[in-house]
Amino acid sequence: MLQGFKDFILRGNVVELAVAVVIGTAFNAIVTVLVDALITPLVGLFFNADSLADSLRVTVPTLLGGSSTFAFGAVLAAAINFLVVAAAVYFVIVLPMNTFNERRQAKLGVAEETPAPTQEQLLTEIRDLLAKQATN
């Protein structure tokens, strides 16, 4: 029983996942500051997304005589915030890192990996080999 647990813990992907969670948590602080300090003020030049959370509310009566409020503006503000964060991460971090890696690989002379053959290509090769063996 303990051997199975030991094997599970020492498996590479579990350790890599734990490291990714820790790094992701630390990286969250960088993304938050980037968005709060640079991107949100830039978006604020065009419109105030914070006011969306307070607007676009629909209040409807409930069956028990109270009222229920649907905050469509808050959902829209969260969606806009998500898109801003995703765009910031992509354009400020992912795209430059990919460009850097491509240039580094080109400088080192590393050829791009050939894509793995599709299942159809493999089946076609197997069929052709079997046909060739049948004729021999």
TrEMBL record:
SUPFAM superfamilies: Gated mechanosensitive channel
Lineage of producing organism: Bacteria, Bacillati, Actinomycetota, Actinomycetes, Micrococcales
Protein name per Swiss-Prot or TrEMBL: Large-conductance mechanosensitive channel
Function: Channel that opens in response to stretch forces in the membrane lipid bilayer. May participate in the regulation of osmotic pressure changes within the cell.
Family affiliation: Belongs to the MscL family.
GO terms of molecular function: mechanosensitive monoatomic ion channel activity
Quaternary structure annotation from Swiss-Prot or TrEMBL: Homopentamer.
InterPro entries: MS_channel, MSC/AndL, MscL_channel
Domain of life: Bacteria
GO cellular component terms listed in the entry, alphabetical order: plasma membrane
HAMAP family: MscL
Places the protein is found: Cell membrane; Membrane
Membrane topology: Multi-pass membrane protein
Alphabetized UniProt keyword annotations: Cell membrane, Ion channel, Ion transport, Membrane, Transmembrane, Transmembrane helix, Transport
Transmembrane annotation, as ranges: 21-49, 69-95
Keyword DNA-binding found: no
Main location: membrane
